[in-house]
Each structure stands twice: as structure tokens, then as C-alpha cells.
């Protein structure tokens, strides 16, 4: 049992891919602000910083692209939940959403490949 989750559980696998995505983004110059921000409106996998911009990162994993792949799995409803959770984060930190530069990135992990989509939505 790693991280409090049964070995091989979906949650444990999700955390492994989030760590992979985090390391990938750190290697490209972003810095970590927070992992797994949760509020009643949803969860944000990673919150990173790129210069003066807060980057809200959704990490998705799919073994294959048979059913549209990882990027296609982020529905408009999921995007809306992420926007609401990001607004909650900004408010909880006393940041003004109209003054704080933000963007939403997607890290799509498919098999062993990582595809980083900045400004995904």
C-alpha cells in the first residue's frame, strides 16, 4: 500500500501520472505551487507557476488512444469544474482573478508518451 491507497488502485495510478507530469513540467521551467488542491467545487491536480502566471494543470492518462485519448477525455463539464475550482483557489489565497495571470494546461499521458498542451481551454 503506497500513499495510503492499495497498490495498483486507480487513485495510486493517478498519483503516479501526476508525479510524472509534475517532473515533466519542472524540467521545462515551471515551479510547483500546490498538488491536489481540493474544494467543494472540484480538484486541481497541479498548480504551477510560469513566471508571473499561475498554471492550473489537469493530468489525464489513457493506456491507448482507442477512445479518443487523454486530451479528449476533458469534457466541457470538466473544464467548467476546473474553472470554478481555480476561482475558489484564487479567492482562498486572496488573489484577484482579474489581476492574476492564469491559464489552464493539460498534460495528456498516453502509454509512455507525455503531451503538454499549454492554454488547453
TrEMBL record:
NCBIfam families: PRK12497.1-3 (NF009150), YraN family protein (TIGR00252)
Protein name: UPF0102 protein JKV55_05300
Family note: Belongs to the UPF0102 family.
Pfam family, one: UPF0102
SUPFAM superfamilies: Restriction endonuclease-like
Bilayer-spanning residue ranges: none
InterPro entries, sorted: Restrct_endonuc-II-like, tRNA_endonuc-like_dom_sf, UPF0102_YraN-like
Amino acid at each position: 500500500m503506497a500513499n495510503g491507497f492499495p497498490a495498483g488502485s486507480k487513485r495510486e495510478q493517478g498519483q503516479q501520472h501526476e508525479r510524472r507530469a509534475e517532473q515533466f513540467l519542472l524540467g521545462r521551467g515551471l515551479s510547483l505551487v500546490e498538488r491536489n488542491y481540493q474544494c467543494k467545487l472540484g480538484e486541481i491536480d497541479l498548480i504551477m507557476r510560469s513566471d508571473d502566471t499561475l498554471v492550473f494543470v489537469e493530468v489525464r492518462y489513457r493506456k491507448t488512444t482507442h477512445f479518443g485519448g487523454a486530451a479528449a477525455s476533458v469534457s466541457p463539464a470538466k473544464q467548467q469544474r476546473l474553472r470554478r475550482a481555480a476561482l475558489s483557489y484564487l479567492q482562498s489565497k486572496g488573489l484577484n482573478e482579474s489581476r492574476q495571470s492564469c491559464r489552464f494546461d493539460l498534460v495528456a499521458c498516453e502509454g509512455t508518451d507525455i503531451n503538454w498542451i499549454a492554454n488547453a481551454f
